[in-house]
UniProtKB/TrEMBL annotation:
The lineage of its organism: Bacteria, Bacillati, Actinomycetota, Actinomycetes, Propionibacteriales. This is NAD(P)/FAD-dependent oxidoreductase. Pfam families: Pyr_redox_3. Gene3D superfamilies: FAD/NAD(P)-binding domain.
Length: 506
């Protein structure tokens, strides 16, 4: 069990895991299986599930098929549909956590305030809202899309009605019959707008850039299928493998042959034509950049919702928000009761990076602000010993399931923890040249991708115009790169003799 040090009351743990979403939960389970039982998972929210616990907006569902959006070690024969709803995914994570018997080491309602590397003890000193930890390693599973980004719009702070971000839905606000505006038309908006359209009086949807949206091939799993998945797990594995192969087959179109994505554009245009007859609206919703440059979205309900009588799609730029209205560049003022902000997340400048201070006394935000986010194999960062980032730089996907990437990283981290223990290493840190070579190779491979050549602005790109978020290849190549812990790419330190004494003296 974790122990407290004598003077500062810092709780000593081998591993401090940040976040109880898919990444943190998998880390806890796999560390436990590897015999690394001395860990704590700190989670600012009140339960497991991460994004699937927090994002409760109406219509929230996964846009990756259920068979693949689950752990390989915890297949779920009970998924209700091809694409799972938020509640079901959250319940799945809860069940997985309970079955694995790890919840006794989860500290909920506990947010990380800051983390500092202490060279004397070769440990991380982590301040949380519920006390201090001294941890051998920090494993960050805090999520790439977890910090809501509010738009900087003149006057927005003076709005007198209800206002909330899509990822922090206020269920106390009854939208029935109200005049509502939604700013943003990304993955969250296209799911929630069709639900709001059914209940509000009037809905204004503010679109800055249209997205390519293809039909959602949705269906419920039958009772026979579920029974078969339960009785013959091999069947579900086969179904999962089929989905995996299908999605991976699409990767080259994103990474090397973006012209192939014209097929998606044709599919999308048919999707529009089926739902919208007004040529002006058709023009507004038809993108002019290459499909895939921004995330390709899937929906059967978005275009019909925009075509509904109680919805206006506004494409004139927003100039300001008043106490009760949104004003656009054409001078129009549209009164509203409720403002829903579906403007996405801080991705390339994650706020948590400001609070992590490494070996040289610099924060991760400082280091990354110089040349953009970078990490060796998307997982470890030079200057930040014993720190692991799950869903770190260049690990996100435009074509497949993040759970596969998360599991790949967790395997690597568990291997690293094992290597540290077996070799008696107090600290490991990727060599600067190993990280630079990895980053250069990833950026080289990024050049022909649709995210670079597709002619759009997207949250995949940082302030330097580099894509530091996505993995430019198939997911199995990522897994191959992380298949074993490559100690030769790391500077290692054996325990300093003062370490134990210093810990005791704390
Ligand atoms: O956020 P977004 P999201 N004024 O950043 C607009 C995942 N996800 O929450 O395109 C006006 O995609 C912005 O316009 P533009 C998924 O990975 C997954 O929707 O920048 N508009 C855009 O339309 C997704 O990609 C699921 O010109 C402003 C929107 O706001 C990621 O989360 C479901 C603005 C933001 O879209 C983020 O999706 C939901 C401003 N100042 C989300 N600022 C699944 O199903 C921004 N916008 C798994």
């Amino acid at each position: 069990m974790p122990k407290k040090t004598s003077k500062t009351e810092a709780t000593l743990v081998d591993h401090l895991i940040v976040g109880a979403g898919f990444a943190g939960l998998a880390s806890a389970i796999k560390l436990q299986e590897a015999g690394e039982r001395d860990f704590v998972v700190v989670e600012k929210d009140s339960d497991v599930g991460g994004t699937w616990h927090i994002n409760t907006y109406p219509g929230a569902e996964c846009d990756v098929p259920s068979q693949l959006y689950s752990y390989s070690f915890a297949l779920n024969p009970d998924w209700s549909k091809v694409y799972s709803p938020q509640q079901e995914i959250w319940e799945y994570t809860k069940k997985v956590a309970e079955d694995a018997d790890v919840l006794d080491r989860f500290a909920f309602n506990t947010a990380v305030i800051d983390a500092k590397w202490d060279a004397t003890t070769q440990r991380w000193l982590v301040n949380t809202t519920n006390g201090q930890y001294s941890a051998r390693t920090v494993i960050s599973g805090s999520g790439g899309l977890s910090e809501p980004r509010m738009p900087e719009i003149d006057g927005i702070e003076d709005f007198q009605g209800e206002i909330f971000h899509s990822s922090r839905w206020d269920h106390d606000v009854d939208l029935t019959g109200k005049r509502v505006a939604v700013i943003g038309t990304g993955a969250s908006s296209i799911q929630l707008v069709p639900e709001l359209q059914k209940i509000v009086g009037h809905l204004d949807v503010y679109q800055r850039t249209p997205n390519w949206i293809i039909p959602r091939n949705e269906r419920r799993f039958t009772a026979v299928e579920k029974a078969a998945f339960r009785r013959v797990p091999g069947l579900q594995k086969a179904a999962r493998a089929a989905v995996y192969a299908q999605l991976e087959g699409r990767a080259p179109a994103f990474t090397r042959f973006p012209q192939l994505l014209q097929v998606v554009e044709r599919q999308c245009k048919k999707n529009i034509a089926k739902a919208i007859s007004d040529p002006e609206l058709v023009a507004k919703v038809t993108p002019t950049y290459r499909a895939g440059c921004k995330r390709i979205l899937i929906s059967n309900a978005w275009y019909p919702a925009l075509a509904a009588d109680n919805v206006d799609l506004v494409t004139d730029p927003i100039t300001k928000v008043t106490g009760d209205a949104i004003v656009t560049a054409d001078g129009a003022e549209r009164p509203i009761d409720v403002l829903v902000v579906a403007t996405g997340f801080y991705v390339t400048e994650p706020p948590i990076a400001q609070h992590i201070t490494g070996r040289e006394g610099r924060t991760l935000a400082d280091v990354w602000s110089e040349a953009g986010m970078a990490a060796y194999k998307g997982t470890t960062v030079h200057g930040f010993p014993n720190m692991f980032q799950i869903v770190g730089p260049n690990t996100a996907l435009g074509h497949s399931s993040m759970i596969y990437i998360i599991e790949s990283q967790v395997r690597y981290i568990v291997e690293a923890a094992r290597a540290m223990r077996s070799k008696g290493l107090a600290a490991i840190e990727p060599k600067a040249e190993a990280q630079a070579a990895w980053t250069a190779e990833v950026q080289e491979r990024m050049k022909p991708t649709v995210w670079t050549t597709g002619g759009c602005a997207s949250w995949y790109l940082d302030k330097f115009g580099n894509n530091t978020t996505l993995w430019p290849g198939q997911t199995f190549t990522f897994r191959q790169h992380l298949s074993k812990f490559d100690a030769e790419a790391y500077d290692v330190a054996t325990p300093v003799t003062v370490s134990t004494a210093a810990e005791e003296a704390l």
